[in-house]
Amino acid sequence: MLTEVFRALGRRWYVVVVGLLMTGALAYGAYTLTPTQYTSRGLILLLPSEEAATAAGNPFLALSGLEQPAGVVVAYFASSSAQNEIADLSPTAEYLVAIDDSTRGPAISVNVTDVSAESSLSTLEHLMTRVPEELARIQNELDVPAEAAVGSMTLTADEAAEPDRSGTIRMTIAAVAVGVLLTGISAFALDGILLRRARRTAQREEDATETGDHGPGSPAAGPTPAHDEIGDPDLLLDPQPVPARSRRG
User: Fold this and answer.
1) Is the pLDDT of residue 112 over 50?
2) Can you give the pTM of this predicted structure?
3) Domains plus CATH for the chain?
4) Cβ-count burial of 76 within 10 angstroms (0-12 exposed, 13-18 middle, 19+ buried)?
């Protein structure tokens, strides 16, 4: 099967050449039209209350149990109100606020992706400020005493956004795959159409040749109506005598 496909592509090489040129143009368009994304990241750690820290003697020894308030804060930033807030700041920004899986504690990771490094860093800075504010707002609504309130601290925040070309590469690869596939299908389909047309033409010529060999007027044909009615002209001009029959006495 693959041999037939390669033979068809070889016979229709001109279709393959045109298709590959169009594939190159399609890939170039996908690469240039798909913008490079820029990502930035920050990490916020929730801290125990003053009471819990005093009892433990070290705030980092009292981090257990803070995953629940961290989950509440994360849930807020997944809401439509938070999404609309970020959309007003940067319509092209995409963000994710989630509990960080790489740490064994109540750490909240903030990831921002945008079409420019400046907008990515601006959105990250906004979210790094909003996470502690939202944590404080939730506790104020619950009338949590100041000495029992959970705090937070910034562990890390990117100062420069990193370019992310994975989306551009995916679109380019997809464009190349589509172009090559369409080129192969077009060349194979055209080859099949032309081969069938050639076979039909050859069959018609063969049928016409066979009909001409046994048609009227050919040596193999039977006598014409003129011979049936008139007879052989030579016999009419030079009739042969009929031998007389002997009579028996």
Assistant:
1) yes
2) 0.63
3) 2-32+175-191 (no CATH), 37-164 (3.30.70.1130)
4) middle
